[in-house]
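Retro notes (design track)

What went well: tokenization of the new backbones is finally stable.
What didn't: we kept losing track of which sequence belonged to which structure.
Fix going forward: every design gets posted as structure first, then sequence, in one message. First example under the new rule, 157 residues:
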């Protein structure tokens, strides 16, 4: 798949960032102009990831990790959260039963819109009774829910 980087020039028009990007963008514009009624064209667009939002998401995970009672390692906690949020694939395990493996949340795998959706699913999972009951097994569901809310409230602003 062709990647094209665009920018707004001094005249307020879109242009390719490099000469190769300009050529690809001009080809795309030419195809758009030649479209006939009923013809279709498709393209992919990725919104650049917000570094600040990325850091806030991982700070939230770090705070929850630091206050939970089940995981000794942050990567294990993060994998559990990603699977709980549904960001995983299921593959056959050694005994043939399906096993959930977390997917990557790297900048190249999730753009800003996709990462924002992932974040919302993570927060929803962390607020679930299943998550709070597992993270704090020695307190009741109400207390566990309140504990999670007190941790997440800092990131709701």
């Amino acid at each position: 798949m062709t990647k094209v980087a665009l920018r707004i020039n001094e005249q307020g028009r879109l242009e390719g960032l490099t000469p190769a990007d300009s050529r690809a963008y001009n080809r795309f514009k030419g195809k758009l102009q030649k479209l006939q009624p009923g013809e279709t064209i498709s393209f992919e667009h990725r919104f650049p990831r917000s570094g600040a939002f990325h850091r806030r998401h991982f700070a939230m995970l770090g705070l929850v990790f630091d206050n939970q009672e089940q995981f000794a390692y942050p990567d294990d906690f993060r994998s559990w959260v990603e699977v709980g949020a549904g960001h995983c694939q299921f593959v056959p395990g050694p005994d043939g039963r399906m096993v959930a493996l977390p997917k990557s949340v790297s900048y190249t795998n999730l753009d800003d819109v996709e990462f924002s959706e992932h974040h919302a699913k993570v927060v929803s999972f962390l607020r679930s009774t299943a998550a709070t009951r597992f993270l704090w097994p020695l307190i009741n569901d109400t207390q566990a829910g309140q504990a999670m809310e007190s941790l997440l409230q800092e990131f709701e602003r």
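Added context from the reviewer: The chain has six helices and four strands.
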